[in-house]
Amino acid sequence: MSNKPKKGIPRLLELAGEKRTLLVWSGISSTASVFLMLVPYVSVYFVMAELLKHASDISAVDAAFIIRWAVWGAAGMALGYVLMYIGGMCSHVAAFRILYGIRVKLSDHIGALPLGYFNKHATGKIKKVIEHDVEKIELFIAHQFPDLINTAVMIAAITVTMFSLDMWLALACVIPILIGFACQYSMMAGSKAQAGLKEYFDALENINASSIQYVRGMPSIKIFGQTVRSFRKFYDDMLRYRDFSVKYTDSFQNGYVSFKVMMLSLATFVLPVGLFFISGDPDHMAFAVTLMFFLVLAPGISTPIFKLGSFASTLTVIVEGVNRMDQIFQEQAIVEPESGQKPSAYDIGFREVSFSYGGEGGAEVLKGISFTAPQGQITALVGPSGSGKSTIAQLIPRFWDVQKGGITIGGTDIRDMRSNELMECLSFVFQDTFLFSDTLYNNILAGRPTAAKEEVYAAARAAQCHEFIERLPKGYDTLIGEGGVYLSGGEEQRVSVARAILKNSPILILDEATAYADPENEYQMQLALRELVKGKTVLIIAHRLTTICEADQIIVLKEGQIDDRGTHDELIARGGLYQKMWDAHTATACWEMDLRREEEALER
Ligand SMILES: Nc1ncnc2c1ncn2[C@@H]1O[C@H](COP(=O)(O)OP(=O)(O)OP(=O)(O)O)[C@@H](O)[C@H]1O
């Protein structure tokens, strides 16, 4: 058996899993309903035949026979509708269950991906796949699947009937249909069309991603008096989508027109063939009746065929949507060890770590980094912008896995720890704090969902946010974000410190934690952090060197390598890069002081 990965509809059915059974029932009900719907036509045929047989003496008509067929016809139609309804119900239930199943699978998989994946991929793209592409599947399974079966069975039944009546007339009908299909298929299924569809999906994803950026970047756009036109990315993506859609639709013109012309002129092909054969048939009358039947049936078959054509275009969209889902499923999830090891201590060790964002062979942003952040001590990372400080911090929670060397916690390689155990050891306070659209209380509680009320308040007090929370009209029940209040950058950071205090993990990583702090806020933040770092292994990244000069160890980075290390005094004494940074920092502080003095003088 081949293990080739499935694509398109077979892949969709594979994703549907055991919910396929409902789809099978939907298919069976729809097929049965088609045949039952044909019963009234059969009954009309027999009733007509009986009436014609006794046209000269109508009293000889078998009334019971006619009533029987009338009842059969009505029953067939009624049962046909019931089965059609059951088929529709089954497909709807199956669709929503499949949708739910696929979304859960996608969410589970996304949850298992390394955090770096979310930096690399725009949220708009992921959102489009989970919402838009999965939703299209519902449309297909719930509505079009039973219709598709109906249409296919009807076309098959009509074709069989045609061939059983007359092969030549049937061929005169079927050959133009096949040519019409070939014209359309060559346009829609060719490699150019497939590439076009991919490009169409890319354009749609780009619009999704850049529209989110546009909305998020609205304050900057407004402040700088710009318009949508000046937000080039969104504007360009919209233009690209418009131009591409017009070009893409145009490319189907010839194929679709040829297909439609063929379908609507089937009688033009049937009539000459019929006239050719009628003269050679001894039973002219019977052949004439058959020819009449074909001339009536030919336009009738075009309706289900048009329907089938529209399904073909939906199918290509579904297939591309399933491909997009598979691209997410193919993303390598974090490799979890069978049985995770627990660290016995909480020092962090970097051993000859080299890392490139581009994977193996890419440009290295960290080159052979080795250091130990001892347990219970504060280690600071400093260095010019782009030297790799944030990358080091993000490698510890496995945003990405290192390509060379290894990172350990208490001597245990982080790749040998289960992710939940690794995360339990760590707390983060990032520069950009993320608060959920929820109450302030729940935002702090997120640090340890099992914490008691008093513990949440204690954490808020320690993080210097209790006072400002109490001042809000609804206190801890105040909603944050949409429909609620917005906090200042410094307040948000202190809430995230409260969250970290509540989590009380043995290792703490602070990335630019005082970035938003004004003098008042910075003082509050320092008080909050002092509480937070007590007895923890702390790795801190800060541009304000004054905040880290007390650190037990300072590691100076330059272009992805360790340039120097030591305490503040040792590094100053050595007079290297750190001393230059310190001089620059103190010069800026003096400059700020001078400005303040000038302002004060002016005020006086
Ligand atoms: N997601 C990413 N993909 C590719 N390259 C990245 C990514 N993040 C950072 N880099 C690159 O890696 C290098 C190190 O970046 P990093 O953010 O670690 O530096 P940093 O010292 O923290 O800088 P800063 O002080 O400005 O925040 C930079 O050259 C940066 O351009």
Automatic annotation (TrEMBL):
Pfam families: ABC_membrane, ABC_tran. InterPro entries: AAA+_ATPase, ABC1_TM_dom, ABC1_TM_sf, ABC_transporter-like_ATP-bd, P-loop_NTPase, Type_1_exporter. Residues 24-316 form the ABC transmembrane type-1 domain. It is found in: Cell membrane. Keywords: ATP-binding, Membrane, Nucleotide-binding, Transmembrane, Transmembrane helix. GO terms for molecular function: ATP binding. The keyword Membrane applies. Residues 348-584 form the ABC transporter domain. It is a multi-pass membrane protein. The chain crosses the membrane at residues 21-46, 66-87, 169-188, 261-279, 285-306. SMART domains: AAA. This is ABC transporter ATP-binding protein.
